[in-house]
Amino acid sequence: xxxxxxxxxxxxxxxxxxxxxxxxxxxxxxxxxxxxxxxxxxxxxxxxxxxxxxxxxxxxxxxxxxxxxxxxxxxxxxxxxxxxxxxxxxxxxxxxxxxxxxxxxxxxxxxxxxxxxxxxxxxxxxxxxxxxxxxxxxxxxxxxxxxxxxxxxxxxxxxxxxxxxxxxxxxxxxxxxxxxxxx
Length: 183
Hints:
By secondary structure, the chain is an alpha/beta fold. It is built from six helices and eight strands. It is globular and about 40 Å long.
């Protein structure tokens, strides 16, 4: 897995071994960043279910100002931490070692807001993730003009409206779908 563009272009991202992590494929990641290219510069990014951190690191490489990575698996966090260290991103990348819903509540309590939120949960977490998206729509962590991107399986389709968020676009890539939501 490599960084596709930006200041870290071509550098390899460490990926945890085993089936704990399903990294976003290069084709999907390239398409995602082509779609949001105009919004990534100076964006505050939240990468939920971040795994190795390849999506958040790609965002930082392309000009995002900060990225908070939410990951609960200790072994995966070790790999993510190594990636941030190897790339020299410790000052702009922060790891929250919590389950996603708890992390959202903590971030909201701390008054954090994000311009772009990426959700790439295990595909089996569809119902749980739908609840997280709905709670994000009512919480204050997604900036008023912010973008939420949910990566999910092609055989699952979230509603067009989740809480106050409306799906403005959906793109399919093989067995993966990216759904783009805004308030």
